[in-house]
UDP-N-acetylglucosamine 1-carboxyvinyltransferase ([Clostridium] ultunense Esp), 416 residues
Amino acid sequence: MNKIMVEKSPPLRGNVRISGAKNSALPILAASLLGTEDIILEDVPKLKDVEVICEVLSSLGAKVEFLDKGIIKINSKDINNYETPYELMSKMRASFLVMGPLLTRLGKTKTSLPGGCAIGTRPIDLHLKGFRALGAEIDVDHGNIGAYADRLVGDRIYLDFPSVGATENIMMAAVMAEGETIIDNAAMEPEIVDLANFLNKLGADIKGAGTSSIRIKGVKELGGATHSIIPDRIEAGTFMVAAAITKGDIVVENVITSHIKPVIAKLREAGCQIYENGDKVRVIGADEIKAVDIKTLPYPGFPTDMQAQFMSLMSVSQGTSVIIETVFENRFMHVDELKRMGADIKIDGRSAIIQGVDSLMSAPVKATDLRAGAALVLAGLVSDGVTEIGDIYHIDRGYDNIEEKITKLGAKIYRV
Ligand code: UD1
């Protein structure tokens, strides 16, 4: 099993280009099942999760071609299979996003319960609530879920929580339903807007994406389009924390700064200097990192996907900080790993109380989930000795070329 080794780093310096967003690429690739003409996607990040969803598309009968770097061509004219194989489903929760497109395109879809990061029970009740409201019959047995509908008819759907995946899945199911669908208390993440923009390019009629109320007027069919994936705000945030934790000076390129406002605000509170310039952000770390409190929330709040990375930063801050995780109920698995490296963290329900320490020390640790893996790389950059990170397949699921990018900034990080 591969491991990533991280040596204690000098302050990181230089420029790093952010890749396309994983959480945009995955739903957009799933949505490519809806079009009957060629679709070209640009700036698709090179990630294990992208490979998996492309395998899912191929298994359903779509033609998927990897063209130049970051460019994928998909043709879904002849999709003929409505069942997603268990092996692929169990690898990645986002595979569940093909259900909405298949339901509306083929009138039926069957899959096993989704896998992915073990950061909570992660139910799918809201996805199913939406499908039912559109007229689908849902059949759950022996770990399989089927959804069937001769015709889908638009309806008004209220989400009890603004779930990203449920908003996307319902939006994709509704694009070819008869009449109008309104999703209330919809997720407002930039990735939802990217998906809606893509679907509209294919010929859909979606308004209000990015607000809490999305209106979808059903159309008869969708065609093709060329679309560039938005930059990954979580990868950008991770590199910004890398600058902060190593007291470095990094210019992060290819970012949409309005997408990372909470990360910018919290890094400034922690004492970093941040300069925004078009699609670039320069982060200069502070000599002393101030302790700041964080509460994760749906967008535009502080992203849960940046919680673990900030916890690494707070582990070496001057003072005590409290991090409250409100989105997932079990997203503190990195805490035990950080404690092995000398961090002083106590968990109380959904809160973590972090007492900053002067230094961390290397230890063999495990990437318990994707963002936890990133947090351990960041902690490794400021730990005495060489940190050995296992279970790195989690990191490969979501970070495009992480070693190369950090190495270019002056760190010593390699795979064994
Ligand atoms: C997406 C992101 C993930 C991010 C998360 C929250 C992708 C591929 N993944 O995951 O990186 O951490 O948004 O920003 O885009 N919930 C329900 N019922 C449902 C669905 C969700 O109760 O039917 C709950 C979940 O258990 C969780 C919360 O809603 O507590 C948020 O989950 P959701 O927004 O759906 O996250 P994902 O779409 O899985």
About this structure: The chain is about 30% helix and 25% strand.
